[in-house]
Amino acid sequence: MTVPLDRHYLAELQVSAERISQLRRIVAAHLRHWNLDLQVRPVCRATEELLTNVRRHVGEGARCVVELRWSGRQLTVSVADGDARMPRLPHGGGGGLSRVMALSDSWGTCRTPDGKVVWFTRYAPTPRPTGLPPWAPLPAGLTSRSRPEAALV
User: Fold this and answer.
1) Per-residue three-class SS string for 53-93
2) How far, in Å, CA of 22 to CA of 55, rounded?
3) Residue 66 CB coordination number (10 Å)
4) In this predicted structure, what is the pLDDT of residue 103?
5) Looking at residue 143, what is its pLDDT?
6) CA distance 49 to 40
7) Distance (Å, rounded) from C-alpha 35 to C-alpha 57?
8) Is 14 exposed, middle or buried (0-12, 13-18, 19+ CB in 10 A)?
9) Nearest-angstrom CA–CA distance, 4 and 34
10) Nearest CA to 45 among 13, 21, 76, 14?
11) What whole-number distance in Å separates Cα of residue 146 and Cα of residue 153?
């Protein structure tokens, strides 16, 4: 399977509980479309944490930009907002950034002229096909597959 490199998705939104939930579904759909099914749960959870942090610390209705970029090897998710205050990890852990750190291979922050960007990455290699054809559905009443008698000889 040939995968086009550098897949990209960008969304600008006003953060709210409803929009966070909606964006989580959009991110999941993009990951599935890119055949990154194993990444859906951790990436959506970490993205949700970053958006929740924007809602909690910048404010309900704050504008932010979410960006997904997959190089065929590494997936990067970033959330940019207009607040210049940089996030900090709490001393005892347990905050949103602690969860992002646990769900990612790397993460960081970057100050921008308009605010900041918080990002994380996950190793996400191009999926390899198994080479096995899918099984046809079992006829009614059968619960397992067995080899034809001729194949056992």
Assistant:
1) HHHHHCCCCCEEEEEEEECCCEEEEEEEECCCCCCCCCCCC
2) 14
3) 21
4) 94
5) 66
6) 14
7) 34
8) exposed
9) 10
10) 21
11) 14
Residue 80: partners with Cβ closer than 8 Å, 6 or more residues away: 64, 65, 67, 112, 114, 115, 116, 117
* pLDDT per residue of the chain (153 residues) written in tens, 0 to 9: 454 567 999 999 999 999 999 999 999 999 999 999 999 999 999 999 999 999 999 999 999 999 999 999 999 999 999 999 998 877 766 678 999 999 999 999 999 999 999 999 999 988 776 666 666 677 766 666 665 565 555
Q: Which two tokens stand for residue 1?
A: 């399977």
* Chain length of the chain: 153
**Nearest to residue 9, comparing CAs of 79, 103, 99?**
79
DSSP state of 125: P
Give the C-alpha distances (Å, rounded to integers) separating 62 from 43, 44, 75, 82, 135. Answer: 22, 20, 25, 8, 49
AA identity, residue 94:
G
- Among residues 99, 86, 88, which one has the least CA distance to residue 43? 99
Instruction: List residues bridging with 118 in a β-sheet.
Output: 79, 109
